[in-house]
Design goal:
alpha/beta; about 20% helix
């Protein structure tokens, strides 16, 4: 796997500085570290925006997908794999997350794509989020959250040359 070296990985301060330099309005708030959506749901934040679930998935061909969906949706990985033209998806390991995007578990968000200049990770955003005007994302660290408008997110993704694919992401049907 060709990855960035730790020397070239950007951090929280770098991504916030880039947002400022680009003139993208955002608000950032520090909080206790969170590792998953359950812990995130217990946070009381003053920031406006929808909380999103961010998952790094991979297939057997080592194709990687950052999937952004609603906070409470249980994903149907088989249906998503089919929609992405893959046979089977699994969750990427913590080591893969760090090697590809330079972040630790609990810190994943589209902002981490700043560390993927080679475009190894395909960004997939659930169309269910299409009507949202602002989002809450971790700025590469899980002890802070950023409120970012939809237009700000789009501008950031264009700047880092990482377009989003807006797809219907099916919920798993429990039987």
């Amino acid at each position: 796997m060709q990855t960035n070296t730790n020397d070239t990985m950007q951090g929280k301060d770098d991504v916030l500085k880039l947002l400022e330099e680009m003139g993208i309005p955002f608000s950032c708030e520090e909080h206790d570290p969170v590792l998953n959506m359950s812990e995130s749901g217990t946070l009381t934040l003053s920031l406006a925006g929808v909380r999103c679930k961010n998952l790094l998935l991979q297939d057997k061909k080592n194709q990687y997908f950052l999937v952004v969906t609603t906070a409470t949706k249980p994903l149907d990985l088989a249906a998503l794999a089919s929609a992405l033209g893959s046979k089977r998806l699994s969750f990427a390991s913590a080591d893969t997350l760090f090697e590809l995007l330079g972040i630790r578990t609990g810190s994943l968000s589209p902002l981490a794509l700043i560390n993927d200049p080679a475009g190894r990770v395909r960004l997939v955003i659930d169309v269910e989020l299409n009507g949202e005007t602002s989002f809450l994302f971790h700025p590469l660290e899980n002890h802070a959250s950023v409120s970012l408008s939809r237009s700000g997110l789009d501008t950031f993704l264009r700047h880092i040359e990482h377009p989003a694919d807006w797809l219907s992401v099916c919920a798993r049907q429990d039987t």
